[in-house]
Amino acid sequence: MTAQGALALLSGLVVHPNHQFLDRAPTATAAPFDELIPKITGHQQISDAALLHLARCHGAKLVTFDQALAVLCPWSGNLEVIVP
Questions:
Q1: Which of 42, 43, 39, 30 is nearest to 79 (CA)?
Q2: pTM, 2 dp
């Protein structure tokens, strides 16, 4: 997928009636972040884990194109991987 294609898709998702902006982030020391720790294999996954933790704490779903996130996420109800 091109950058323009990804931007167009993201723009459409942001205006979706079920889209939510979450501005209150839980701390990384709060549960259930500890469930992610054993699955983190490198520093590149810290941001991914923080976003998953944010979704989990708010009862939301993280939507991503990154298929590798499925390996990191122990909560299938909080992750949706889009395969273009």
A1: 39
A2: 0.74
